[in-house]
What we know:
The structure holds 2 protein chains of 2 kinds.
Chain A: E1 3-7, E2 10-12, E3 18-25, E4 34-39, E5 45-51, E6 58-60, E7 68-73, E8 78-83, E9 92-99, E10 109-112, E11 116-120
Chain B: E1 4-7, E2 10-13, E3 19-25, E4 33-38, E5 45-49, E6 53-54, E7 62-67, E8 70-75, E9 84-90, E10 98-99, E11 103-107
Parallel strand pairs in B: 2-11
Antiparallel strand pairs in B: 1-3, 3-8, 4-5, 4-9, 5-6, 7-8, 9-10, 9-11
Amino acid sequence: QVQLVESGGGVVQPGRSVRLTCEASGFTFSMYGMHWVRQAPGQGLEWVAGISYDSTEKYYGESVKGRFTISRDSSKNTVFLKMNSLRVEDVAVYYCAKESDNYSGQSPFDHWGQGTLVAVSS
Amino acid sequence: EIVMTQSPATLSVSPGERATLSCRASQSVGRNLAWYQQKSGQAPRLVISGASTRATGIPARFSGSGSETEFTLTISGLQSEDFGVYYCQQYNKWPTLSFGGGTKVEIK
């Protein structure tokens, strides 16, 4: 079965960096676009970033553009989110999510990880 | 950016009753609209895609309708496991995706 397991969260000081990792299994990773979605405490869902199945396309939400970088390593079935210049408003649970359609680039997310919490505090 | 607006913010429903949730897009998204269910402390779960197609394992009491800018999720005969927060998401204006603010379905 499909599994997405995030790691890398924790307490980070403002202005510092952290890299989140999502390890995927149970499907042909190289065929699907992957995304990061975050949820601030008590708030709704916010799309953060997405990467195409072949890494040729990468996209970001306005609030993280220029600070966050998404990448993937299909040899290790892993997607990353490098988060630089962290702010208090970046505090959230970060979810990794898989697109439902292969090679699509325009489909919803049919599987999600359990999330990893990033807390930004001095 | 396409803004997704959900109503109501909270819906109080008795078990066995029908729940009707609305989602409005600030511009047309065709039928590229999904609904997700999220229970407390859990990741979201895909319920509906393509405005009306139930995801794998989703029971028939869940139905979606609508197109362009107006969408509805209906849960007929609400069961205890259906309570939680429901989010709509547009994926028409790729690559910019957006979610609605959510509707909390609670026990009346």
